[in-house]
Amino acid sequence: xxxxxxxxxxxxxxxxxxxxxxxxxxxxxxxxxxxxxxxxxxxxxxxxxxxxxxxxxxxxxxxxxxxxxxxxxxxxxxxxxxxxxxxxxxxxxxxxxxxxxxxxxxxxxxxxxxxxxxxxxxxxxxxxxxxxxxxxxxxxxxxxxxxxxxxxxxxxxxxxxxxxxxxxxxxxxxxxxxxxxxxxxxxxxxxxxxxxxxxxxxxxxxxxxxxxxxxxxxxxxxxxxxxxxxxxxxxxxxxxxxxxxxxxxxxxxxxxxxxxxxxxxxxxxxxxxxxxxxxxxxxxxxxx
Length: 288
Description:
The protein is of the alpha+beta class and about 290 residues long. It is built from three helices and 13 strands; from the N terminus they run ααβββββββββββββα.
């Protein structure tokens, strides 16, 4: 091989080597740049993901807070409505809604010799009234007792039992009803407005209003009577004395003869005690 041929081959080899070195350097630079771009992209994605998650969390918290505010507003709205209802019921003329609901659970109690009032305590028709309403002149429980509902349906009555000392009798009629609820008589306050529903002098399902004049007046078994100035007359016995929440605070028993505005009702806690004693004794169950 001639000398100039060797020079040409050597130069060509050098050029190829330089090209390979340059290509390697460029390739490495490209790889480094891609890795850097990848790392930067990964960091950016992580940042965006974190920001997105933070935004989602903020929105979730905001939604929860909004729901809580809505619930609070709903609670406040219900509370305001309840207060309005109570305020309306604070005047006699605004007892109308309570009367419409309560009177359906009141019945006229009738025997061959007398008549009075009772009210329904359970959905299946258990009734409480005064024992003297169903007692004949000879001091015995009448053999024939009827209950008349607000829709003028006459129901035969099953006598369950009576406590003559407490002047309470437990009766039963057939059917399904909306019972009246007994208030805890420890919550009764002097001066609160009440209504009495009954059958005074034969005027069926009459309503009178008044206030609680006194509480815990003495009776046969202790300080167990509410005094009220709600008008009570013959035939009111056994009817409910109802507060402005529509709950029974007492069962109307008697009034002081030749006086006005001095009626007395057995407190609801004693009603519950007397009824449950009778139901446990005669039915082997607690009713209320």
